[in-house]
Every structure is written in structure tokens, then in C-alpha cells.
Amino acid sequence: MKSLILISLLLATSLCAFQEEDNVLVLTTDTFQDAIDTFKFIMVEFYAPWCGHCKKLAPEYSAAAAELKKIGGDNYVPLAKVDATAEASVAEKFSIQGYPTIKFFISGQAIDYEGGRTTNEIVAWINKKSGPPSTELNTVEDIEKFLERVSSTPILVYFGSTTDNNDYNTFIELAQQNDKVTFAHTLNLELAEKYNVRGKIVLFKSFDEKRNDFDQSVTLPNLESFINSYANPILLPFNDKAINIVFQQRNNAVILFTDDSDAGVAAFDAFAAVAGSFKDRIKFSYSKPNDGSGLFHRLAEYIGASTTNVPNVMLYDQLGGNGKYRFEGEITTESLRTFLTNFFDGSLTRYMKSEEVPATNDEPVKIVVGKNFKDLVLNNDKDVLIEFYAPWCGHCKQLAPIYEGLAKKLLVNPNIIIAKCDATANEIEGVNIESFPTIKFWKNGQKNQIIDYSSGRDEANFISFLKENTSHQWVDLDRVEEL
Which key words are in the record (predicted)? Predict the structure, then answer.
């Protein structure tokens, strides 16, 4: 009893050392390392005040912090946050490039948080990382109470009689690695009889079949495949959880963009009918403009789907270089089945986003779109420098006048083209753009070997790079200006 009181007092003293807001510790450059050193386990969100995703996460994160605080004692895991725009040195130390980025620290060592963004998902993930990987269930009351959690996360339960065997050890090894489900085990054979367990392992969940019995040999690959197949709904509404499943966990997905019209409902029914046949090979998700997620238009823009001509279907191949494939024709069960079969046998043609070719293109900075890329860049003897930008990107806007000035100066070098491409509206095969602005150079005679530009974004550095890399006779700019 005295030890528990002492732990509580020490915890209270530790918390007083840090500013707190809605149950979340607010860390600065001065207090960050103290917090990491104080707590064996601590989760830290790096955020920006203007970030929409951060604002959406805030109430869930705060509620998770409150839930974890209730546990108290030596099992307490605090949640903290750092304004990465104000505490730049801390953000730079952990290479923070997007918001929110969440790190989990174990004895000072950081790992990436790749769980969901709801209160229950955050708490479940932390409980697994900070406690035993699997919870032991001894009685009927234990298992019934534990299975109440199934509404927020699937639960994988091992039913056995002893821990002294390879099957149990493999189960625990998986529990230590896998964050997609919650793990529990029981050595009470009466519980196996009560739940009519035919093998040793059962997945309990709140959707689709409600329960799946594992009937293969107990190996890590078999268990991982089993979880991947059954731990998520066959049809995923596109929300934050789907973002985690599709993008963060890097799964291929076929996505239906639909609405509540008769055509939309018919398309959804066809989509649902074919999903069961392919669920082990690809994720199925759907998005509606009025579903409350606010993701319909952003997802459509990213993946190249129409927001006006709905319903429509796109397939996103993350495992094959982020390729996108557009379904054409009437959406029926049979046509969708053919579409997916053609994808898996490699006979689909990849869809590349492109704006229309501009009617005129005679400004110093040439406009590259998907449809004119080959003519303007590949099928000529010019050297070509392209800035890939996003219309909303602040760094791109800062670069614009410098880039325009560079293009005007280089008009005296007619064999060098200075160009730009809106990478949010156009895709170029073989060119992967992950940040803005990204600048690349195609050199005449070596255009299959793209050169990344990584020097300074000022006129002098651009000119130095081009002078060094051009395949043509360089016209000295100073001499031209003198003349």
C-alpha cells in the first residue's frame, strides 16, 4: 500500500513539472527531454496549429489521455504534444515533415505510431505497447468482459491448456509485433467448450461474420494472413481508419465513389457482391460526398476520380508503384469481376492524370501536363528542367518569381527549357513526386536517367547547376547582358 502511495506521489510530482492542456502534456524545447527521461512510456504528437488533421485529432487524443490517466499508478502512460512550428529544433531532431506525426517513446527510444486516430484505437495501441502483449483470461466473467471491447477492435483469442508449446509461443510472438487486433489467451478448457472452439484460435469482431475460426497450422505467416483477411470489414467506409488500413499499412484498394441515387445504390450493391471473392487480395472501400468524413473530394483529387460523374470506381496499386486504374463502363457485378481479374493478371492499362494541353505555351516557363510530356520533354534534343508544384504549396509560391526570372534569363540558351508541372493534376510515368516543390532535370541524350535537383532555390544555384549539366554549348549570361 505504501509503495502505491509513493508511486502516486511521484507521478503527481512529475506531472506538475509540465504544462497540461485537456489532459495532454504541452512540451517545449526546454521540457521535451525532461518528459522523455521522466516517463518510461510516453506518446508525443507533433502538430501545427493550422493543420486540419491535427484539429480533428485533438478531441480524440485528449479523451485518450483522460482514459489513460484513470489507470494511474506505475502503469500510467501520458500523452503529450509539441507545436512543431514553434519548437523547430525538436521537430528537426525527429525529422518531422508532416502533421500530425505521432511518436511513441519507450525508455527514450522513439518508434512511429501507425495506429488509428480514435480514442479507443489510441488507448488499445498504447496498452499493448506498455503492457503484456496478450491478456490472460481465467473465467467466463473475464472473457465476457474482455469481449465487450470488440466494438472498437477485433480480438484474437488463443484457447489452450498450457503455455509450454510452440503454438502458444508463436501466438505471443505475433502479439508482440501486430497492432491490428487485440490479443488474449486462456488456459481454461471450459471456456473453449463454452465458445465451441474447434481449433485453438478465434477472431471475435463486431462486423461481417462476427467470428472467424483459425483452422491452419499455427505459424506467423498463416496468422498474419488470417488477420489481414478477416480483421477489417470487407467494405470499408473511407474515413480515418480506412486511411490507416489502405495508406499507412500500404494495402492495394479498389474504391467506389458513389452517392444515394438509384445508380449509386445499384453500384454499391454490385461492389458489395464482388468484394467477398477478392477480399483476400485487395481492400474494398467506398466514399460518399455526404458521409461526414470530409474526405470525398480530397480522395477523388488524389486518386484521379471524378466528383461529378458518380458512381465511378478507381483501383489504387500501392504495391506496384502507386499505379491508378480507372474502371470504364457500367458498374455491374460481372464487369467489376472482369476489371479485378484483369488487374491481377496484369492486363489493365494504368491511368495517368493529366490536364488538357494548354492552347498556348509561349511564356518563358513552359507548362508540362501529362498529355504533352513526351513531346515537350522526351521527344526532342532539349535539356529540360521541371518544377513539380502544388497550387497550395507555400514554398512553391515563394519560388515562383525566382523561377520565372531564371526562365527569362535563359531565353538566350534556346536549347534549355524551363518548365513547371502541377503534380496534383498530372502524373508522369516513372516520376514519383512525394513533396513540393520537387525539381528534376532531363538531359539530352540521357533522358532515361533523371537527375534530381537538390541545390539551393536561388537563381545563382540554378544557373550553376544548368551550366554544369547542360549537353549544349552554354551562352554566357553576363556577356549577353553586356551586349
Answer: Disulfide bond, Endoplasmic reticulum, Isomerase, Redox-active center, Repeat, Signal
* Domain boundaries defined on the chain: 20-130, 135-231, 235-345, 366-469
Q: What is the CATH number of domain 235-345?
A: 3.40.30.10
Give me the mean pLDDT over the 168-185 stretch: 90
The DSSP bridge partners found for residue 256 are 286, 313
Q: Computed from CA positions of residues 322, 328, 332, 338, in that sequence, does the dihedral angle turn out positive or negative?
A: negative
For the domain bounded by 366-469, which CATH number is listed? 3.40.30.10
> DSSP secondary-structure letter at 259?
-
- Is 16 catalytic? The answer is no
pLDDT number for residue 151: 77
Beta-sheet strand order (sheet of 155-159)? 135-136, 182-186, 155-159, 201-204, 211-214
pLDDT digits 0-9 by tens, 115-125: 888 888 898 88
Each residue's pLDDT tens digit, 254-265: 999 999 999 999
Catalytic residue among 273, 393, 412, 433: 393
Q: Is 51 one of the annotated active-site residues of the chain?
A: yes
Residue 42 and residue 57: Cα distance in Å, rounded?
17
Handedness of CA 362, 368, 371, 372 (dihedral sign): positive
CA-based torsion, 244, 245, 249, 251: positive or negative: negative
The question of whether 393 is a catalytic residue gets the answer yes
CA distance 137 to 238: 34
Of 24, 42, 54, 315, the catalytic one is 54
Q: In degrees, to the nearest 5, what angle opens at C-alpha 176 toward C-alphas 113 and 160?
A: 145
Length of the chain: 483
Cα 224 to Cα 153: distance, rounded to the nearest angstrom: 16
From the candidates 7, 15, 26, 51, which is the catalytic residue? 51
* DSSP character at residue 231: S
Count of beta carbons in the 10 Å neighbourhood of residue 388: 23
Cα separation, 403 vs 276, in Å, equals 51
Give the active site residue among 126, 231, 331, 396.
396
Report how far residue 471's alpha carbon sits from residue 240's, in angstroms, rounded to the nearest whole number.
48
C-alpha cell at 408: 527569362
The CATH superfamily label for domain 135-231 reads: Glutaredoxin (3.40.30.10)
Annotation says 421 is catalytic? no
Which whole number is the average pLDDT over 159-178?
A: 92
Which of 113-127, 344-358, 376-390 has the weakest average pLDDT? 113-127
Looking at domain 20-130, its CATH architecture is 3-Layer(aba) Sandwich (3.40)
